[in-house]
Design brief:
- By secondary structure, this protein is mainly alpha-helical.
- The protein has helices at residues 3-29, 32-36, 39-42, 46-60, 78-81, 106-113, 116-128, 184-198, 225-240, 244-261, 267-287, 292-316, 325-337; strands at residues 132-139, 142-149.
- The chain has a two-stranded antiparallel ribbon with strand order 1-2.
- Helix 10 (244-261) runs antiparallel to helix 11, helix 11 packs parallel to helix 13 and helix 12 packs antiparallel against helix 13.
- Mean pLDDT is 79; it is low at 121-126 and 169-174.
Length: 338
């Protein structure tokens, strides 16, 4: 990028930020803490808290039309208003609202919120197709943020970064998704189906590409807000309790979910691959001297996971303080080659 282009882009960004501050961020800023610490907000489920925040930003922008009147296509919100309401539109509206001036009526808030349940997945889909991610560096001059390209950028392509983590509990918010099964046999079937759909074989030699086809209905459980948190907890607990077979099963299934949810080369995939590599290394150490074939397989898996994780983390580069993920990559590689 030429210096003049950079300066023009910077000026446009600052102008846009100023307009957003004036139009709606300023209205919310002083109310945010009291709103999110209120009893009514804290009583919400995690996905409802996200909905409440999104709705608060939406109503703070003003220019909300009267629902009883025809849609005014000249208004910025007209496209959103034209969306169809969800299947539970007749349910009682229970989300709290911040104390804005002028106040927004519950009727208008309900009218807007009715369009969330049919269209929340668009938010999730947008997050999973971004090709860039922010990283933060701690320097003597302070904290700086850099935007890292996770893939090649085409000329004229818009640069987007995610504001939310699509795999985190608070960003799911899909009330229509089926609950994951409770039985171990059913959960094992979902796990095997997920790994097969993503393309994770037992060699773990190459990180599969993100699937482009339609996700089978049997795997819709994977997107439910409890599935990933329970799977992550199983992986962490099994690793720490030296139950390595269970840890590897949960960890590779979680890797399949991350490949399905995150865009390619997303840093969280690389971080999880590092955790898998460390688990496989610990599995190697525990079996060395007692089962040579199992030890060799664990060592090969540790190297494979390390190679795949390194391939992603070197794209993202060093982040935070010294001794970050890339230092861990070097340390584990030293152990594997010793």
């Amino acid at each position: 990028m030429e210096r003049g282009d950079y300066e023009n882009a910077r000026d446009a960004l600052l102008t846009g930020q100023g307009l957003q501050w004036k139009n709606h961020h300023k209205k919310l800023c002083s109310k945010h803490l009291s709103f999110t610490s209120s009893n009514s907000y804290q009583a919400l489920q995690n996905h409802e808290k996200l909905d409440a925040l999104l709705l608060a930003h939406l109503v703070a922008q003003g220019s909300i039309p009267d629902p009883s009147l025809p849609n005014d296509e000249s208004l910025p919100i007209s496209t959103f208003v034209s969306l169809l309401p969800g299947p539970n539109a007749s349910d009682k509206f229970k989300l709290p609202l911040p104390d804005l001036k002028p106040a927004v009526s519950p009727q208008i808030a309900k009218f807007l919120y009715e369009r969330f349940s049919n269209n929340n997945f668009a938010i999730h889909s947008h997050l999973t197709t971004v090709g860039h991610a922010p990283k933060y560096l701690f320097t003597p001059a302070g904290v700086t943020m850099e935007i890292i390209a996770l893939r090649r950028i085409s000329e004229g392509e818009e640069i987007c970064i995610p504001y939310l983590d699509p795999a985190m509990l608070q960003t799911q918010g899909f009330g229509a998704l089926p609950l994951p099964p409770n039985g171990s046999d059913e959960l094992s079937f979902v796990a095997r189906s997920l790994r097969e759909f993503v393309g994770l074989d037992q060699s773990f030699a190459v990180l599969p590409d993100k699937p482009t086809g339609t996700v089978p209905q049997m795997l819709h459980h994977v997107f439910h807000e409890t599935y990933l948190s329970n799977l992550s907890e199983t992986f962490s607990k099994s690793s720490h309790e030296l139950q390595y077979e269970s840890a590897m099963d949960a960890g590779t299934t979680l890797l399949g979910a991350y490949i399905l949810i995150y865009p390619p080369n997303y840093p969280q995939i690389g971080m999880h691959l590092m955790e898998l590599a460390k688990t496989a290394w610990n599995m190697f150490v525990s079996s060395e001297g007692t089962d040579s074939s199992a030890a060799q397989l664990s060592r090969e898996r540790a190297q494979a996971f390390l190679n795949m994780g390194r391939g992603i983390l070197v794209i993202f580069g060093q982040e935070g303080d010294a001794g970050g993920p890339l230092s861990e990559v070097a340390s584990l590689q030293s152990l594997l080659t010793s």
